[in-house]
Amino acid sequence: MDKLRIVQVGTGGWGKSWLPFLHESSDWELTGLVSRGGANLDSAREATGLTASACHSDLAAAAATDADAFLITVPHHLHVSYARRVVEAGKHVLCEKPFSDDFAAARDLVAFTETTDRVLAISQNFRYRQGLHHLKALVEAGAGAIDSMQVDLREPQRPWLAQGWRGEQGVSPLLLEVLIHQVDMARFLCGADPVSVYCRAWNPTWSVTKEPASADVLVDYDDGSRLTYCGTWATCGGETPWDGEWRVRYENTVATWQGEDVTQIPADGQPELDIHTLPSFPGHDRAGVLVDFARAVRGEARFPTDGRDNLPSLAIIFAAMRSAAEERVVTISEIMDA
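Below the sequence we write its predicted structure tokens.
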């Protein structure tokens, strides 16, 4: 099967980290780059071996090529405007998370894209973890329904959190850029829709950010399950994996996961359940994202976290920010229906 052609927009630090995944993909061929220029573009061009004519500073020029799709890795406040221009040019889109810093704009783009036959995919790469899929497999293996999910996330601060556009964005980097991972993972795990969110957020005295770097978040779902999240992007020790440390309580057992294998804690006298067969797992991290994106573009399957699916995850983030600001429980409908 011929490879699909993709152009990457954005060659900054995170954009560069996509290049090995594209190089190793059996589904995609990187045919162009879009960047403001400078050292980032020079470095990406050297790493990929692309010619100068395949590297653009103008999105419109790149959209006029024969690429099948565009990968958008620019800062999130530019996601919606770039993605809309690409869809209008008739191309498929794979957009980095968080989808947008404006919920209404994200919702409008989803509605617009659904009037076309283009794919609008949001890369929620943390869904592509075998451990997470093993936690989900426990339900069908006999663990029973999920009652609660607890996640601890502890990461140290980096100086760049207070620099450039991040330092001026006016929202908590923890809530907008990190929590989106865990709430999307939890939605996948429990298979239910979020109903309400309560959040308390604060800034440690040593934090370099203007906005809260720590938060406790409680999410209730329509099946009665709940997520309790304790996160900080300002820890001075005790770091966790970016996935977080998970403890999931099921009807018949408890399981923990810290980025490696799942540990089961069955009730007294009960055996561990067999959960290690995952025939549908597409691959780890962005390798799996690219496999599923190719399938969606070829019309073989819906992308798991397309724009429509991603809206409830994004709504949890905006509900958490509103809850922290207004010190109250915020319903998801307040965000989704506004």
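The chain has two domains: 4-126+285-303, 130-269+313-336.
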